[in-house]
Amino acid sequence: LEAKELWEQFHKRGTEMVITKSGRMFPPFKVRCTGLDKKAKYILLMDIVAADDCRYKFHNSRWMVAGKADPEMPKRMYIHPDSPATGEQWMSKVVTFHKLKLTNNISDKHGFPLLNSMHKYQPRFHIVRANDILKLPYSTFRTYVFPETEFIAVTAYQNDKVRRLR
């Protein structure tokens, strides 16, 4: 995970991510890949899963459980637009998911992750050894979870400390 220190600063304050039409992740999700077969092709993807089964509210300057989670939105995998690429290509630069947007719009046609506001989420990063998207379900893959990237989805920032750090 790139910018790990920044992610940790946000995590300490309770990271919030705004889900809107332009809901880009901040801090942006960036990783550096190592140990890949230089000649093999890989598809990199990300999904965002519920961190628990609770709904939250921001009360007295902190997040607290406000009941059971709403029904989950349909799960979507976000495929990095440079996929597939060789291990050599992936390892030569920082991999950025800067085009990924977070949305609560069920009509979204871009395949962006669908999230419920006031719920806690955990991004997951997947490396799949495959040279074709159609082979994804049958391919070997590794999943990486960085606990400091957990966040609460909001439609507007609730926590001033997060807003200021941003």
Write the layout of secondary structure elements.
Blueprint: H1 4-13, E1 16-18, E2 30-31, E3 41-59, E4 62-68, E5 78-79, E6 85-86, H2 87-91, E7 95-96, E8 119-129, E9 140-145, E10 151-154, H3 160-165
Parallel strand pairs: 1-10
Antiparallel strand pairs: 2-7, 3-4, 3-5, 3-6, 3-8, 8-9, 8-10
Summarize model confidence as the mean pLDDT.
92
* Assembly state of the chains shown: single chain
* CATH class wording: Mainly Beta
Write the CATH homologous superfamily: Transcription factor, T-box
Number of helices: 3
Give the % helix.
Answer: 10-25%
Strand residue content: 25-35%
According to CATH, the fold-level topology is Immunoglobulin-like
The biggest sheet amounts to: 8 strands, mixed
Which stretches are low in confidence, meaning pLDDT under 50 for 5 or more residues running?
none
Number of domain modules: 1
Task: Assign the CATH architecture.
Answer: Sandwich
Instruction: Report how far the terminal alpha carbons are from each other.
Output: 18 Å
What's the β-strand tally? 10
Q: Judging from the principal axes of the Cα atoms, what is the shape? A: globular
Give, in order, the helices and strands: HEEEEEEHEEEEH
How would you describe this structure to a colleague?
The protein has 166 residues and is mostly beta strands. It has a single domain, classed as Sandwich (Immunoglobulin-like), CATH 2.60.40. The chain has 3 helices and 10 strands; from the N terminus they run αββββββαββββα. Strands 1, 3, 4, 5, 6, 8, 9 and 10 form an 8-stranded mixed β-sheet that branches. Strand 3 and strand 4 form a beta hairpin. This is T-box domain-containing protein. It holds the Pfam family T-box. InterPro entries: p53-like_TF_DNA-bd_sf, T-box_DNA-bd, T-box_sf, TF_Brachyury, TF_T-box, TF_T-box_CS.
